[in-house]
Amino acid sequence: MQVYISDNYQQQAELAATHLAECMSSRPQPLICVASGDSPAGMYASLISQVNNKLLNIDQWNFVGLDEWLGMNGHDEGSCRYHLDRQLFDPLKIDPAKICFFDGRAADPINECMVTENFIIDHGGIDLTILGLGLNGHVGMNEPGSPPDSRCRVVALDPLTVQTGQKYFSEAKELEGGLTLGIGTILESRNIFLLVNGLKKAGVVKTILEGPVSPQLPASLILQHPSVRIYLDKEAASLLTHQHSTN
Question: Is the pTM value of this prediction over 0.85?
Fold first, then answer.
């Protein structure tokens, strides 16, 4: 596990983007698992800048979505796909054939999970999974109590996720559940980046990094991965008592 603490969000985002580009440079057709949300948004902006300035070629990259709200897809304002279209896919003009993303409106959500697992297998596995961190310790929509060997699946949402998820919508939404890559699927990734910023996440960051590993804190399960990097800004790292790297 490598922990990088940056002075601010911008530095954090640029560092993670630089490491991502370096990490994928040796992969001929990498598969990247992408998360929506505030934490990775800056990294995506930095990647877009690299591509626009001809510093990075992503023509052969493929993408799989980390999660989606049940009952929503990219046509729904506030959905995970809606945000990623605007943060990443549309600015980079990604060919839709190179993207696999849960359709939360599909008649058979379980089949959507099978489609995602098969897409991952067909592309030789995930080269890099990008994660944010929920206030309850979730990653993706793997809520507290998620099994360490869980696969892509339909999940019920923790009340805190339902509450905090409202920020993505212009009006109150009844969030019924979600579709997500499971912890087991995530742990099969060759690399994992966890990005966390802001003072409100400082408490859960401390618990994850300095407390015991437990399914009740799903993010703690990924710390056992042999190639996980954690990117924090100073606010998110402000409660840590153990020595960690800075940049």
Answer: yes
